[in-house]
Design goal:
The chain is α/β, with parallel strands linked by helices. 41% of the residues lie in helices and 22% in strands. Strands 4-1-5-8-6-7 form a 6-stranded mixed β-sheet, sandwiched between helices. A two-stranded antiparallel sheet has the order 2-3. The chain starts with 5 loop residues before the first strand and ends with a helix.
C-alpha cells in the first residue's frame, strides 16, 4: 500500500511575519523547519505537497484550498508560539480542530517526540477558529514549536534543529502508518 500524502504548511510568509523577537521572524523558522521535515518524509517515501516553499503570503483559506485540491491525506502546519512578555512561557503545543481521532493521536505523538528533545509539553489544544484546521478535509494539526520570544526555546530550536525535524517526521510516519 502506498504511503499517504502529507501536506506541509509553513505558517505565515511574505508581509506576514507572524511573531517576531529581536529580528527573528516566525515565518522564517516555520519555512526552514517545514522544508526540513518535508525532505525527510520525501526521502522516506512519503509524497509531500507544500503550501509554500518560499517567502510568499497566502491567506489561510488558500492554504486549506491547496491541501484539499491536492488530495492530501494529512495536513501539518508549522508555527512558533509567542507570549505577551519575553521568557514567560516555554514549550511545544499542538493545535487541532477537535481533540479526537488520528489528528489528536498525531498531535500527542509530535509533542511527545519533541518533549524527548527537551521541550516542555504544553499539550494538545482545540482551536475551532483556525481556518487551516477547520477548512481542511483531512486530519490536520498545527505545531507551535516553542516560543519565539523565549531564549531557552530558541536555543533548543537552533541547537537541535535537525533532531527536531527528524522527531516531527518520525511522529508523522509512525502515526499515519499505525
Amino acid at each position: 500500500m502506498a504511503n499517504p500524502t502529507i501536506i506541509i504548511d509553513a505558517g505565515h510568509g511574505g508581509y506576514d511575519n507572524g511573531a517576531s523577537d529581536n529580528g527573528r521572524l516566525e515565518k522564517d523558522d516555520n519555512l526552514r523547519l517545514a522544508l526540513a521535515v518535508g525532505e525527510i518524509l520525501t526521502a522516506d517515501g512519503f509524497p509531500v505537497v507544500y503550501t509554500r516553499t518560499e517567502d510568499v503570503y497566502q491567506r489561510p483559506i488558500d492554504k486549506a484550498g491547496i491541501a484539499n485540491e491536492s488530495g492530501g491525506d494529512y495536513f501539518v502546519s508549522f508555527h512558533r508560539n509567542a507570549s505577551p512578555e519575553r521568557n514567560t512561557y516555554s514549550g511545544v503545543q499542538t493545535l487541532v480542530y477537535s481533540d479526537e481521532g488520528i489528528k489528536a493521536e498525531l498531535a500527542r505523538r509530535i509533542n511527545e517526540e519533541l518533549g524527548k528533545l527537551g521541550f516542555n509539553d504544553l499539550g494538545v489544544q482545540e482551536r475551532i477558529n483556525l481556518v487551516v484546521l477547520r477548512r481542511t478535509r483531512m486530519p490536520a494539526v498545527l505545531i507551535e514549536t516553542g516560543f519565539i520570544n523565549t531564549d531557552a526555546d530558541n536555543e533548543l530550536f537552533d541547537a537541535r534543529f535537525d533532531e527536531i525535524a527528524y522527531a516531527i517526521a518520525r511522529a508523522i510516519e509512525e502515526t499515519v502508518q499505525s
